[in-house]
Design goal:
mainly beta, Porin, eight-stranded antiparallel beta barrel, 1 helix, 60% strand, rod-shaped, disordered N terminus
Length: 239
Amino acid sequence: MKRLVLCLLGFGVIASAAFAGETYSGKETKQVAPPPCPEWYADNEFNVSLWGTYVFTGSKWEADRYLEADHAWGGGIDFKYFFHRYFGVGIEGFGLDARQARENVFVDLSDGISSRSFENHREAVGSVLGTFTLRYPIHCTRFSPYIWGGFGGIFGGGQRPINRWVREGGTIAQGGEGFDIFETVGHTDSETSIMGQVGGGMEVRLTPHIGWVSDFSWNFVDGPKNNFGMARTGVNFAF
């Protein structure tokens, strides 16, 4: 009888320990919600970007009538304010160091001589545009692809040769008897033209307030022969 009672008591102790272990185990395996991933881009954000740029013309340099060069280097800055993370408005400005090749022509009808030459001049070409940007920050990552469009003006280029009929000795006229030399006597001043811009790129946030941007745009200036591509890269500060 005593052995039976001891066996029952032992079984009860083992069962109690087992149930207690199950209860403790249940507390250990209780699921806890993971912490939210960091947000690298804010819903309302002011951005300031500083960048360097390389420009190349869409036409051959002899045919381009604004930059009058096949390429140029420069830099710029833009300011943007993003509403609800995905779209923003801003203003952009840049400057280029253009090594222009200005055309000079000489035609002597009496002697049957003609020539065409180019002389190089360095000119600062700049632009100011208003912009509209759409971006898509990829959730839980540092990456945000974006596209944008801009419209404004460009200045500092567009110098054109001034060609005149000239009598031997230097007298300038519009033509006629005795005026058998046609040559370039100078170049016009720079002109301001309307410019449009479309482009796309990628931003990578190093911190929630500092990012690296790289993009490419195509720029339209007063006729198809003056268009140029612009590649740029630089740092972006978000506030």
